[in-house]
Amino acid sequence: MLGSGIVMRRRIATLFAVTALALFFLLGRVAYLQFVRGSELQRRALENRMADIRVDGKRGNIYDRNGQELVRSVSADTLYAVPVQIKNPRETAEKLAAILGRKADDIYKIITRPTNFEYIEKKIADPEKVKKIRELKLPGVYFQEDSRRVYPNDNLASHVLGYVGIDNNGLAGIESTMDKELRGQPGWIVQERDARGREMPQALHKYIPPKDGNHLVLTIDATIQHFVERELDRIMVEHRAKQATIIVMDPKTGEILAMGNRPDFNPNQWEKYPAEVRDRNLAVWLNYEPGSTFKVVTAAAALEEGVVTPNDRFYDPGFIMVDGERINCWAAGGHGSQSFVEVVQNSCNPGFITIGLKLGKEKFCRYLNAFGFGRPTGVELPGEGTGILYNEKEITNVNLATMSIGQSVSVTPIQLITAVAAVANDGRLMKPHIVKEIRSPDGKQVKKIKPEMVRQVISRDTARQLRGILEKVVLYGSGKNAAVEGYRVGGKTGTAQKAGPNGGYMPGKYIASFVGFVPVEDPRLVILVVVDEPEGMYYGSQVAAPHFQAVARDALRYLGIPPKIDANSKKDKEDKNTKKVTVPSLVNLPLTEAVHKVQAAGLRSRVEGAGEVVLEQLPKPGSVVPAETEIILYVGPWGEVKEGQEVTVPDLTGLTLQEASELLGMLGLRLETEPGATGYAVSQDVAPGTRVRAGTKVKVRFAPPLLESGP
Length: 711
Fold this sequence. Notes:
711 residues; alpha+beta; Penicillin-binding protein 2a (Domain 2); Beta-lactamase; 5 domains; five-stranded antiparallel β-sheet; 31 strands
């Protein structure tokens, strides 16, 4: 009995020891979780029951230099789901798919994920779809206020503006490089939910509002941009070119007034275009051998260094030998005896090669660097190329000879126009820029981008001397087609055979170009036209110079830069050049009526395409242009207007009730007026030129004509 009692006491003691040890361990564990990991576990528990919904602010608008809206953000609705709240996922998916035009299986996969939040479709543009989904009142399916990007001018300056992805990120153009300024800061909706995703009683619910993005004011002038895009369209039609680019710059400030490319794209539908079109801005990306336009740089360096004077004589037999290599002049038989001015005027290859060799590779390379070649200019656009230059140590005499005439050197269009702008600006090289101002969401100026001088490349005297020589290229040489009546124009043509991908040059493949400035005495505009692989004619004088002329002529008139009037000119000619006219709205009008309105406004018209209705016009309605400016009318047949499609409201003034009804009906719009209305339309509640969706009502007031009293 004594032995069994001892055993019992030992067992009890062991039980107490084990229990005490277990309690000690549990207390230690509780203390560890409470005091060591308490804050972390509390945070994780909160995260498990919190649903965070990101709310993006509105991206800032983008304007041209005169305040014309180029890009804006409009309200849109984003559809999302709380999967754990959806009672019948299959039925919900099928109902949503029928409205959204998507596969039910795709939506089903989204709304059955084991999460508290899933996007179904972002930025729904069609309000009818939103309305139908709201009417279903589906459990677990909600809308979040959002915004989407709208480019009211469609393709205009598309590569400059770029586009925005579905997640509010700028993906190209100025939308990309200035994304941080434009997008603002996101906000959040924070909701506390239980394990099934349901809101809890007295739950935490917090809204952190987003901050809208800043607005941008660009240096671009929308009207000059219209002139550029018009000429690019003409280039593609007349010369069937592979691609083309035009840049217009203010040489005094480095501001880019216009920049356009072909092919281009519509940022409203950017997904429909290949990446190589929408993501390559030729004006800053294209690396090409410039040919004779580069001779401006050779001439500037030679004049500045004093290795040549305007009266120096040269003899061109049609070729020149350099270290045993024969380099021909473009003119068979050569130009014979000529002065340096005539060498430039005739774009004589042997003359420029002689000058380049006299200059020497060290000085030549120094000026290439000073003019900004071989590195990006720093313009606020993505994808800028650097060009390609030889390493100075590797340059042979043959290399130096070919570089002097614009071969064996690769540049970008933005580099070349910046260099020529320095000649136009008394030798001062300005940094090119395309952003003029940054403004807060309430319109206050946040930052003004001031012109930035990079360096003095050549002296003022050399620049002015060279401008006078380049004027003779337009007056007497290959640049005659660039002349603008009443203005002094200077410039240089270029025709370069294209380098092949594996070395050498491709037969029959050329890049035609012209770069120039106007007026010579005080340059206000520098314009570069580059045409890649034109068919048929391929000389820069034939292909590029005429389009320089057209852009320069209309831009000078638009800017009110007075011509140098001849003393014998009539006053009415001066009045015609200075009178300003507002371009009327012509879209959706019958062609005959549109032509009549153009003539009545004191403008000229040119019709592109075939059909009986105006589908688009350049310049856009409301643009202020000089009298006699040519308005391009893009016409086509009446087409069926699809539901939800955006159309332009026409000007109904002066139409009868029947005429207004027929015109609106063709556009998918509905006429609303007072009962018993007669006479002619005198006003409308939706302004002409406004973009609205098909089905919109336009209220029109009609009145009988006033009777004129007789004598």
